[in-house]
Amino acid sequence: MSLLRKSLAANSSIFTPSEAATVAMIHSSSHRVLLRRSSSSSLRTATSAGLFYRRGVVFSLFNNVTHYSTSSSDDFFPSSKQRSRGPVMAAKKASGGEKQEEGRYKHTVDLPKTTFGMRANALVREPEIQKLWEDNQVFKKAVDKNDGEIFVLHDGPPYANGDLHMGHALNKILKDIINRYKSMDQEARKDLTQPKLRAKAAKFAKATVKTQMASFKRYGVWGDWDRPYLTLDPEYEAAQIEVFGQMAFQGYIYRGRKPVHWSPSSRTALAEAELEYPEGHVSKSIYALFRLASTPPTSNGLLEEFFPDLCLAIWTTTPWTVPANAAVAVNAKLQYAVIEVQSFLGDASTSSGNKKQRLGHVLKEEKQRFLIVASDLVPTLEAKWGVKLAVKKTLLGSDLENCQYFHPIDKRECPVVIGGDYITTESGTGLVHTAPGHGREDYVTGLKYGLPIISPVDDDGKFTEEAMQFIGLDVLGDGNIAVVKYLDEQMLLIMEESYQHNYPYDWRTKKPTIFRATEQWFASVEGFRQSAMEAISQVKWIPPQGENRITAMTSSRSDWCISRQRTWGVPIPVFYHLKTKEPLLNEETIDHIKSIIALKGSDAWWYMKVEDLLPEKYRDQALDYEKGMDTMDVWFDSGSSWATVFGKSGGPKFPADLYLEGTDQHRGWFQSSLLTSIATKGKAPYSSVITHGFVLDEKGCKMSKSLGNVVDPRTIIEGGRNSKEAPGYGADVLRLWVSSVDYTGDVMIGTQVIQQISEIYRKLRGTLRYLLGNLHDWEAVNAVSYNDLPMIDKHALFQLENVVNTIRESYDNYAFFKIFQIIQRFVIVDLSSFYFDVAKDRLYVGGTSSLTRRSCQTVLAAHLLSIARVIAPILPHLAEDVWQNLPFQFTVQDGSAVKFVFESKWPVPNEKWLAFPIEEIDFWGKILQLRTEVNKVLEVARTGKLIGSSLEAKVYLHTSDASLASRLHEMCTASNEADALHRIFITSQAEMLHHVENEILKTIPYSGEYLIQGSDRVWIGVSRAEGLKCERCWNYTPQVGSFVEHPTLCGRCYKVVAVQPEPAAAVC
Ligand SMILES: [Zn+2]
């Protein structure tokens, strides 16, 4: 690549471009007059004279002029240079229907021809190509033919959420690029699993999968669409039962009573991912009193003086959990105060019928009363309650530990405990009502102190008899009200207040949930956390930050609640003893259930009788057992996907080479897959994990319907309603965009981005069309052997081979944006501005079967075949379109023709091309720099009206670098056309000067001095070319006029024409 960079190296001149222009202009002004006089023949080159006699008669050349030129509008010229130069285009112009006299030599010019359209016409052509693949089973054949090592990209969790958005497109296209690349890779790998889609719930999933498949197909995503695998397939479900069983036998599955998110409206436990937090939820919060019973003996009478009227003041947003209270927690490090309620200031804050706040009766009671609250909150509470509070004593939270208080409802004594840092003075009182059956932090604190886990609430969210007088009441409704009323009656309610906060709702029913301790099945992450952490460090994470994310999440996660109370999904395959409630779960029961489900699907669990579900051995005890009604967490479903794919004998290797999903899956699928795999197989299910960011709009904002900035992949492909405002760009433009972004972070898309990408696509298409057009008469037998190629061609092949290798490396590293950059820089810019530009002369007028044209075509064919194949994973339709328009057959070693681009393999590495000598690499780097500088002087000469086309110029060079001078001199006199320096400059002549003397300078109107990297300065001069213009090739030479039969031709064209059958001028 260093070479490429070299050729890209900006201006190496000792002048900046504008300075160079100024210098050159100064020269020009004093020489202009001279120039006019000397333009015809006063200058002599060392090379051009002598071969073909002296110049003879000057013909009236201008009578026969046809004004053709290569311009940016020419379809076949990817170069957008405005400068008019290059070979004859007479024939083209004539064939374009212009009524000008046709050039006499039109038929001797080899103009490009191809059936490959300039326009992509993607809306028609892409579906045609997709049908071509389908009809010919190209994907299947590519997979079947591949008999080497398998590459497995395991597809991610299902998108069972309807229509596809840009995120899906990014994800699927990235996978498809990898998949297609791997299918072409010489090291012969195949992918069995990537294309297989999965989805969750039966009907919905199947319908969704169908519409999604249609979209994915339109993106050009390959897949085994006839055989997708769904989590609802019996085979899949059986594999999942197996994973559960394996984890249970390892001792990682247990049943426990813990508070979980519970949805009374759908009567099930919920995962964090199944909750939403709508705005505007209002809870009924209360400040309540819990009367202190005693202080611990160790307190040395610290609070004696305030008894018996000393109370703990607590605050809660869930009064219905008060019956389940088991402790009050304080923060050991906070300062607390004993305060006396001195005077009731009136119902100030609750006046004027404000329903948001209501004071309890206790404050209105004329009675001395002491409360304990956090010191920092005293002023806040004074204002809120409308009372005067006097601080009587302060103490630390740790001093309160083990005080006892009376439970406000059943009057049993409960302890004050030390909670965690979750206790602050941001709100409430600094004392936290603790109900381990209804809160996660409460549960943890409860475990520490051995508190009872009380949860007197049933599946419907109604109080059980454990809640005594509240039995049957709805905790989120009348139950809550009843508790508040009771506390007030007991003179334990200070205040009731509406409180707006984030509160979890069931994402399906849109109803509030509760925290509730129930018997659930858990996977003990603690049991295999260490192995998981070690496995994480063995996986390659792309980008590397992914490792930190999943490490943090895995190290801190609590045990995984895997049971759900749903009527659909895969059952937890456990029987319970009717009397003892003991679960029955062992290898025999698991094996038996697995075999049933593999055959009949998981529905069998629900409709079959216990005696049939039990293995033979237990059948006579069937009456003692009932089957469990819990199903597995959907994350357990998707997290077991590796087991279906890799579990079978003959399946792909385990672990998968790659998982690729959005960054949110560090919490989701990457983690659930890791946990199930570690617990059963002891290793991660993947070797590498790639994450991609989110798709944002052009300004970097999140896309949302309300903002109206949603970019729909379908609109990009098919176009919008107004085809002018939103034209359809086709799938390849969308795919090219995917390749262009650094997907490891968030990526942006919008109309402008897509327009730019489509412009790059158009140019790339133009480059490919140039190649196809100039190979219209090509056959492999025409190829010139490497050793016979001119240096310019060997250099081009060297660069091509380097580029192909770099692209391959970038595919291997999943750095697609690098490929995009190389395509943009090398294929579109570098090739067009140098090799292709110079090649036109050889191709069009060099002579159909001349060595110079055939060697150029040898190089072009190599480029075409390589470029089409290396872009194929990203731009499959374009690559196939090229392949279908190949004017020649591409055959593999066994002689069979490769009919589709995806039947071809990755270009075979060519060591010979790479072995271009280092000093030549260096030299050609200088030639490219020199050419850039020569072009600048030519540009100045053009501005000064000395020349129009660069072919009207002669270039002079001088350098004191002897070796460079000698090489350049060789090229001025090169025997092969292709390496001739003036051809490379696209001028008519080039000459090396031994000295730059005043005498010579007078004849050279434009000049400048430039520094070429690694060499001395090079002096460049430009004058008008000697001789007359050849009618056929537009090059100027004194030879024109030398040939009697063809008086308007140059020597080269004379030779070409003389061997061509020409009706008008018969060959003598
Ligand atoms: Zn010519």
UniProtKB/TrEMBL annotation:
The keyword Disulfide bond does not apply. Residues 1027-1056 form the Zinc finger FPG/IleRS-type domain. Residues 185-748 form the Aminoacyl-tRNA synthetase class Ia domain. Residues 70-104 are annotated as: Disordered. Residues 95-104 have a biased composition (Basic and acidic residues). Pfam families: Anticodon_1, tRNA-synt_1, zf-FPG_IleRS. It catalyses: tRNA(Ile) + L-isoleucine + ATP = L-isoleucyl-tRNA(Ile) + AMP + diphosphate. Belongs to the class-I aminoacyl-tRNA synthetase family. This is isoleucine--tRNA ligase. It comes from Salix brachista.
